[in-house]
């Protein structure tokens, strides 16, 4: 249930309509509230403050009508600019960046502001009376409409500035890096119980991770990407039912409807290494387990660091494509990828085997450093064919990473990546001058 609530909240807040819709409703309530306030507590502002409130019925109608029409026009302009920016970013950088623009709070606020001001003016406009109808002008409500119009000028300037800034490649890349590094600090499954401490228990758990027999499968009820795991709920269920739960997919993997989502087997309570067969799960128990795993239509960065890395890789290889050929953007993406990986190079990756302190209950699919490094740089190396600037940036990035860790296994992975870059540079660079630059950089690093 918690995962479903989170998914619904994410879908709503990442949409272009939810927050603007709330602002429209709020503006309508504000308009009705100010009108009712004037009904029950007449203000007669036109008599007390004629310069501020003395517009009259016809003047108030004309002013609110002008404000409403202008707000609707500017709202249409805002939507047009946003869609144009989304289209350009999608074609020039990566279609996976669309969600970042749709979930941008400033874009949502500005759209909601203009449409809300339009709705507010309509609500107030319909209550103004004059002539034979009897005179009623909600002075405070009319003044608030004028203030909303003046605020709209500032909102339009803010919006144009924000769109221009958010379309700059430096801003796009930095936001991806910032979101990804935040996710690294909460890397799955760091808060899922306690890791296996004993080497012997870890070896037994590793054997269970690939053991095909003795498991009861729970299939996915729909297709989607594995976005998030409710760590606490999953461990609580396993402890309560004395079951070992094994996730069948990594975070970010696509799971088809009807395919295995996770597997269970009873805990080996007597230490024999052979567990009794599990009783068939009821439909409610299967649904409870499915609720612990959130499937969605797209990947998210919250527990999927690889997706943040993939977005940066997309920007780099798009920039290196023949149709764009923007080496500078590719170099910027590599620099930011280096910053992301540097947050991982000294990080102790959480164990995929989780316990309640003593007994093994959950087997997860945790990412490994060598896989992350390959995902970050393999495609860039291949697409950077015959571009010495890309090769030099990669080598400098690997050199920086190597200075940040003393772990020999990770140093070996980093050196292997550097060797692949040098090998590919020798094969693809056309001139001896470019090859000498790469070679000179290698000698300087040693």
Please provide a written account of the structure.
- The structure is a single chain.
- By secondary structure, the protein is of the alpha+beta class.
- The protein has 3 domains: 2-167, no CATH class; 189-368, Alpha-Beta Complex (Aldehyde Oxidoreductase, domain 3); 385-446, no CATH class.
- Helix content is 62%, strand content 8%.
- The strands form 2 sheets. It has a 6-stranded mixed β-sheet with strand order 1-8-9-4-6-2, sandwiched between helices.
- β8 and β9 form a beta hairpin.
- α13 packs parallel to α15 (369-383).
- The longest helix is centred in the first third of the chain and has 37 residues, at 56-92.
- The radius of gyration is 30 Å and the shape is flat.
Summed up:
The chain has 446 residues and is an alpha+beta fold. 62% of the residues lie in helices and 8% in strands.
For the CA atoms, what is the radius of gyration? 30 Å
Number of domains: 3
CATH architecture of the largest domain: Alpha-Beta Complex
Assembly classification: single chain
- The class by helix and strand makeup works out as alpha+beta
Low-pLDDT windows of residues: 188-195, 270-274
Strand arrangement in the largest pleated sheet:
1-8-9-4-6-2
Roughly what fraction of the amino acids lie in strands? Answer: 5-15%
Give average pLDDT, whole number: 85
Let me know the CATH homologous superfamily of the largest domain.
Pyrimidine nucleoside phosphorylase-like, C-terminal domain
Number of helices: 18
Secondary structure blueprint with pairings:
Layout: H1 2-13, H2 18-40, H3 45-48, H4 50-53, H5 56-92, H6 98-102, H7 105-125, H8 139-166, H9 169-184, E1 194-195, H10 199-209, E2 216-219, E3 224-229, H11 231-241, E4 243-247, E5 254-255, E6 260-266, H12 283-291, E7 293-296, H13 305-319, H14 327-342, E8 353-355, E9 360-363, H15 369-383, H16 388-402, H17 408-428, H18 432-445
């Amino acid at each position: 249930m918690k995962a479903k609530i989170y998914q619904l909240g994410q879908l709503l807040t990442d949409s272009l309509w939810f927050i603007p819709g709330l602002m429209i409703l709020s503006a309508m309530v504000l308009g009705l509230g100010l009108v009712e306030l004037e009904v029950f507590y007449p203000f007669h502002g036109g008599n007390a403050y004629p310069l501020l409130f003395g517009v009259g019925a016809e003047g108030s109608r004309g002013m609110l009508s002008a404000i409403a029409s202008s707000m609707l026009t500017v709202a249409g302009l805002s939507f047009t600019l946003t869609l144009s920016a989304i289209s350009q970013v999608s074609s020039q950088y990566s279609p996976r960046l669309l969600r970042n623009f749709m979930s941008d709070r400033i874009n949502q606020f500005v759209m909601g502001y203009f449409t809300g001001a339009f709705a507010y003016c309509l609500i107030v406009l319909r209550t103004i009376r004059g002539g034979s109808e009897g005179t009623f002008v909600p002075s405070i409500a009319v003044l608030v409409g004028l203030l909303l119009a003046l605020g709209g000028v500032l909102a339009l300037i803010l919006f144009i500035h924000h769109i221009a800034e958010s379309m700059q490649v430096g801003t796009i890349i930095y936001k991806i890096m910032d979101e990804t590094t935040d996710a690294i600090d909460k890397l799955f499954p760091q808060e899922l119980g306690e890791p296996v401490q004993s080497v012997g228990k870890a070896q037994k758990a590793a054997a269970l991770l690939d053991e095909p027999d003795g498991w009861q499968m729970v299939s996915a009820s729909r297709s989607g990407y594995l976005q998030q795991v409710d760590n606490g709920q999953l461990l609580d269920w396993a402890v309560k039912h004395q079951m070992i739960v094994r996730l069948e997919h990594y975070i970010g993997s696509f799971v088809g409807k009807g395919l295995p989502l996770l597997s269970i087997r009873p805990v080996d309570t007597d230490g024999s290494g052979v567990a009794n067969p599990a009783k068939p799960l009821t439909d409610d128990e299967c649904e409870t387990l499915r609720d612990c795993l959130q499937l969605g239509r797209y990947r998210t960065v919250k527990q999927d660091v690889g997706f943040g890395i993939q977005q940066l890789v997309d920007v780099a290889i798009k920039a290196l494509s023949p149709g764009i050929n923007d080496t500078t953007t590719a170099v910027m993406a590599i620099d930011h990828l280096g910053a992301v990986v540097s947050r991982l190079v000294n990080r102790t990756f959480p164990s995929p085997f989780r316990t309640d302190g003593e007994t093994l209950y959950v087997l997860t699919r945790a990412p490994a450093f060598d896989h992350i490094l390959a995902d970050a740089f393999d495609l860039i190396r291949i697409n950077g064919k015959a571009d010495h600037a890309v090769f030099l940036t990669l080598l400098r990035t690997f050199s920086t990473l190597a200075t940040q860790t003393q772990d020999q296994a990770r140093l070996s992975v980093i050196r292997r990546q550097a060797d692949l870059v040098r090998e590919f540079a020798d094969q693809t660079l056309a001139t001896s001058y470019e090859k000498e630059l790469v070679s000179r950089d290698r000698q300087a690093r040693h």
